[in-house]
Amino acid sequence: MELKCDRFLSEKDTSQTSPELTKLVSLMTDSCLIMNQSESVNNNTQAHGEKLLKGFLSDLDDLNHGGFSGDNDMISALFRIVVNLLKLIGHLLSASRTRKISAKAEVELLVKRGNSPPEGDFRMNISGAQLTSHWDIATGNTFHGFTTAALLSYKGLDESLNCCFDHLETPQKQTYKINSKVVTATFINAETTNLKKPIKLTFSHLKKKNEKHMCVFWDPELDGGAWSTLGCSTVSSRADQTVCSCNKLGSFAVLTVLCDTGVCRPTLNFCTLDSKP
């Protein structure tokens, strides 16, 4: 199976305007081209996949060192590059489960190889988040002898992305703050929207408080990129975690709903101000 490197090469234009992404784009494009020049992608080993994964996490750490900063387009480009690299790495791995932790990220990758598409449910766990889905959703309509799934969390990216809430419905005096790690979820399935079955994401809260929470998805189509609830619903929420159901793949987080002078209680659709004794 030949890898399609065109979608990787197209990100070079982005890296020219965003030097911070240059190392990730170069790693992605060079690895893809080298793999296609080899006799067969199938000849690459678990060691090659882990080497690429190590380089990817190292470059991601460098990018996030001191806090990631960039405009909406740059954030969207970062998420696209991460998705493409996770798919590329999963293509190489032979181990059924690979988990790595770096200074600024944590990732788990699952691989199923065989003569027929895998069946049943699967679960991925990383610090701060859990994903549950079905192998037929991860595979999609075309099976190439293997199926991959990946879940990655970013350490500290929530602080950099406490913005871009303009496309959320905001009642008067209501504001938002990210209260989970930001995660990226991707499958080998080329269809990333309108999944036949939704994925379930369970987020641990960064701060355990009994406040109203909502699940959001990073939508790159909204003014270059912004948080949106489209395609995601909040299944349940308590002080320490929120469960989300989303019919798409991409990057996700949980927001705490706040008021300028109080707390938006989870049982209400408007701000209830805490009165001082």
From TrEMBL:
GO terms for cellular component: plasma membrane. Keywords: Disulfide bond, Membrane, Transmembrane, Transmembrane helix. One of its GO terms (molecular function) is G protein-coupled receptor activity. The keyword Membrane applies. It comes from the Eukaryota. It is found in: Membrane. The keyword Heme does not apply. SMART domains: GPS. Its main location: membrane. One of its GO terms (biological process) is adenylate cyclase-activating G protein-coupled receptor signaling pathway. It holds the Pfam family GPS. Residues 97-262 form the GAIN-B domain. This is Adhesion G protein-coupled receptor E2-like. It comes from Carassius auratus (Goldfish). The lineage of its organism: Eukaryota, Metazoa, Chordata, Craniata, Vertebrata.
